[in-house]
What we know:
By secondary structure, the chain is of the alpha/beta class. The radius of gyration is 20 Å and the shape is globular. It starts with a strand and ends in a 5-residue tail after the last helix. It has a seven-stranded mixed sheet with strand order 6-5-4-7-10-15-16. It has a four-stranded mixed sheet with strand order 11-8-9-14, covered by helices on one side. The protein has helices spanning 32-40, 47-63, 71-83, 90-105, 111-140, 167-176, 193-205, 217-222, 248-257, 289-292, 333-336, 338-341; strands at 5-8, 11-15, 26-29, 148-152, 181-186, 209-212, 228-231, 235-237, 242-245, 262-265, 271-272, 293-294, 297-298, 311-314, 321-324, 327-329. It contains twelve helices and 16 strands. The protein folds into two domains: 5-134, Up-down Bundle (Four Helix Bundle (Hemerythrin (Met), subunit A)), CATH 1.20.120; 140-343, Translation initiation factor eif-2b, domain 2 (Rossmann fold). Helix content is 39%, strand content 17%. Residues 45-48, 89, 154, 156, 160-161, 166, 193, 231-234, 244-245, 310 line the site of 5-S-methyl-1-O-phosphono-5-thio-D-ribulose.
Amino acid sequence: MRPTIEWTDGKVVMIDQRKLPLEEVYTECRSAEDVARAIETMVIRGAPAIGVAAAYGVALGVINVAPGEDLEREFDRVIQRLAGTRPTARNLFWALERMTGVFRENRLLPCGALGLRLLREAQSIETEDLETNRQIGASGKDLIEDGDSVLTHCNAGGLATAGYGTAIGIIRAAFEEGKKIHVFVDETRPLLQGARLTAWELDKLGIPMTLISDNMAGWLMKSGEIRRVVTGADRIARNGDAANKIGTYSLAVLARHHGLPFYVAAPLNTFDFGLRTGAEIPIEERPADEVRRAGSCPITLPDVPVRNPAFDVVPAKLITAIVSEKGIARPPYGKNLKPWRGNRTG
Ligand code: MRU
């Protein structure tokens, strides 16, 4: 299988995640605008993958600057455009800040050389993300026991990253070590990232799984079929509150009620140390029709009033452990995340 996202022959190629698992189609982005649209329309999704795509978008923006065009103005416009695509994942803004730093440091290079320098940076972000995911897997694999059954929500696998995955990375690393694992996959309404993407990935990896609809988790926890929960995150505040796909909060409440561990896996560039608590995390509200339909099929009245927050925030007190490339942090997170923070302000 080709990677989730890659640079090939002057363009960014990404698998179109809207079409999976029925079709394996690849989309080509030749401009920053193409990348912005791909992020907005969820051709590519998942916090780390959005960050990688945005970095390539910035590089394309500079590579495509025409002779005589105002480079600074075009650069700022591209950054604003990409920053406006999706508000919740910290990785998007982290990548734009990193690319902006490289742009400023190399501002005096001729435009062509500057474009290539930015392209190299985007490629480094992609390579580093893959390596980070493997480290998250190595850090977290001992949280999964031989014979375990693990519930995951949405898709925090290779498709949501440059490869390997965060939450799925942990499951994968434990599986690769020879542990017998069974994964329960939440379908994840409204866009069905679990049913469409996580099930597809686990199938390719040969990891045993069972798909459930979102309302089944509580009962399967009570019956003892689910033993722990592992999810990814889109943004983590410095007190450990973690935003992730809508429905994650309910799972954390259910896990606590049933005395089950609830783990969150994310790279350090998902952390937003500038935010005191999760109350400050911006939550994306998506189009109403995503709820009124299942795929392209209407399932209710055409104008029924709808709420569609794409994410929720799990309070730190419900999280048993947070796993990053630096290892495992446990509560109290205010204190125990400090070593991961270093000098960072955001
Ligand atoms: O709306 P999406 O599909 O971009 O939401 C993705 C998630 O919520 C993932 O769990 C999160 O980004 C972590 S991906 C490693």
